[in-house]
């Protein structure tokens, strides 16, 4: 989103004044509006003569004479009609100068446009369509002068008056973002995207990335999470799923700060979405599951990474991690005795841990069974249990059950983790 373009700026301005005919007989006699939207004018004699001379001078590119005649007309102006013609010709003169400068590849000076534009906006003789357009042009000038607040005001007036430019909504977004109103800019962007979608257009992927970057820069975690979800719904690739998850909660610059268990649940999402990208992803995921006491999952992830060609056979860290994971698995032995103990326990903590062990093994049915025991017995974090229950149900193919479990998660940041899983169920990667 760069500076607002000045292309065709002068031509657009001149369109509102180009239909003016200021020869004294024509002005004196017209009662109806002229073609092109310019109003019928009844001018005082002194203004008529000076305005006609000024228009002839503008046509001849004699801007010094035009300025002198317009100064005379301005001094003689007594009515709104008089003041309208003076401002319109001042605008035309400045616009022609800008066109000539552009044609000669010279630097353009837009400062002279402001006064006549403001005068025309304030004049009741100016057609409503031109008032809207002139507000828009002043908005462009303010935006290019880095006056975001002023530009927003002008653009809002233009919108209220019915000005319809396809770039205006995105210009408003950038201005609000640049002025520090990230929430306001994001709201404008959401409206712009909704409008494009309603019109049968596919919004650019860059719009979602822009909103994610801007909200994340301000540490607006929930808003960033929502934009990530919108992005992967619109562009559900494995890479986007990974990038979105990493942006949400996997680095120091992420939208939210997560603990290791919460990050592992996001790694599980990346694994299900086939979005684990490289050796770092696989080995970090494996290390964290080992740290959480889940050696079966550690071993499975390492084997998948090697099979995918992401973990080289020579990786010392992976080989050492595999060694200690196998040792832990051998020490644990069968889970059957622990399962029985979990079901007889006074609370659900052993059942939760045993369910997590089964989850790591890929035994979804047993994991779901133990999570239900944990919920029945209580004494556990219900949001953790429901998150893990949803993951097991999702991997077992029970989409409806998984959504119900994820919907039962009530506290942030797990609500966002559960929501990302739910979005994944409906929008799995397409590539």
Q: Describe it for me?
A:
With 431 residues, this protein is mainly alpha-helical. The chain has 3 domains: 1-122, no CATH class; 127-203, Alpha Horseshoe (Serine Threonine Protein Phosphatase 5, Tetratricopeptide repeat), CATH 1.25.40; 218-426, no CATH class. 70% of the residues lie in helices and 0% in strands. It has 23 helices and no strands. The longest helix is centred in the N-terminal third of the chain and has 24 residues, at 80-103. The radius of gyration is 34 Å and the shape is elongated. Residues 1-28 form the signal peptide. InterPro entries: TPR-like_helical_dom_sf. Keywords: Signal.
Write a short abstract of this structure.
InterPro entries: TPR-like_helical_dom_sf (IPR011990). Keywords: Signal. This protein is mainly α and 431 residues long.
């Amino acid at each position: 989103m760069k500076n607002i373009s000045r292309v065709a700026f002068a031509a657009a301005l001149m369109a509102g004044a180009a239909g003016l005919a200021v020869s004294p007989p024509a002005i004196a006699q017209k009662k109806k509006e002229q073609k092109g939207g310019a109003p019928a004018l009844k001018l005082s004699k002194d203004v008529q003569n000076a305005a006609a001379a000024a228009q002839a001078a503008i046509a001849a590119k004699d801007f010094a004479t035009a300025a002198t005649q317009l100064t005379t007309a301005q001094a003689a102006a007594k009515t709104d009609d008089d003041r309208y013609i003076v401002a319109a010709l001042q605008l035309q003169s400045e616009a022609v100068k800008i066109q000539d400068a552009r044609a000669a590849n010279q630097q353009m000076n837009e400062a002279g446009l402001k006064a006549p534009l403001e005068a025309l906006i304030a004049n009741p003789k100016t057609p409503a369509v031109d008032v809207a357009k002139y507000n828009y042009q002043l908005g462009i000038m303010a935006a290019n002068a880095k006056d975001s607040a002023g530009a927003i005001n002008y653009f809002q007036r233009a919108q209220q008056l019915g000005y319809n430019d396809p770039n205006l909504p995105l210009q408003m977004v950038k201005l609000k973002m640049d002025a520090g109103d990230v929430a306001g800019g994001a709201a404008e962007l959401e409206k712009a995207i909704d409008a494009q979608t309603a019109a049968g257009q596919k919004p650019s992927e860059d719009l979602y990335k822009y909103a994610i970057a801007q909200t994340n820069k301000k540490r607006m975690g929930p808003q960033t999470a929502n934009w990530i979800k919108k992005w992967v719904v619109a562009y559900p690739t494995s890479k986007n799923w990974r990038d979105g998850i990493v942006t949400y909660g996997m680095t120091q610059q992420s939208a939210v700060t997560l603990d290791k268990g919460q990050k592992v649940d996001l790694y599980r999402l990346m694994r299900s979405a086939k979005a684990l990208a490289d050796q770092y992803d696989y080995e970090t995921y494996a290390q964290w599951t080992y740290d959480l006491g889940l050696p079966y999952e550690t071993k499975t992830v390492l084997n998948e990474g090697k099979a995918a060609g992401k973990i080289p056979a020579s990786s010392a860290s992976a080989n050492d991690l595999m060694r200690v994971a196998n040792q832990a698995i051998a020490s644990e032995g069968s889970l059957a005795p622990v399962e029985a103990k979990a079901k007889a326990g006074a609370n659900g903590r052993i059942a939760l841990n045993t369910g997590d062990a089964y989850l790591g093994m890929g035994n979804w049915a047993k994991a779901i069974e133990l999570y239900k025991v944990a919920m029945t017995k209580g004494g556990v974090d219900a949001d953790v249990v429901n998150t893990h229950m949803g993951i097991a149900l999702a991997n077992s193919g029970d989409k409806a059950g998984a959504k119900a479990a994820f919907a039962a998660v009530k506290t942030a940041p797990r609500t966002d983790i559960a929501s990302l899983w739910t979005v994944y169920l409906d929008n799995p990667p397409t590539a």
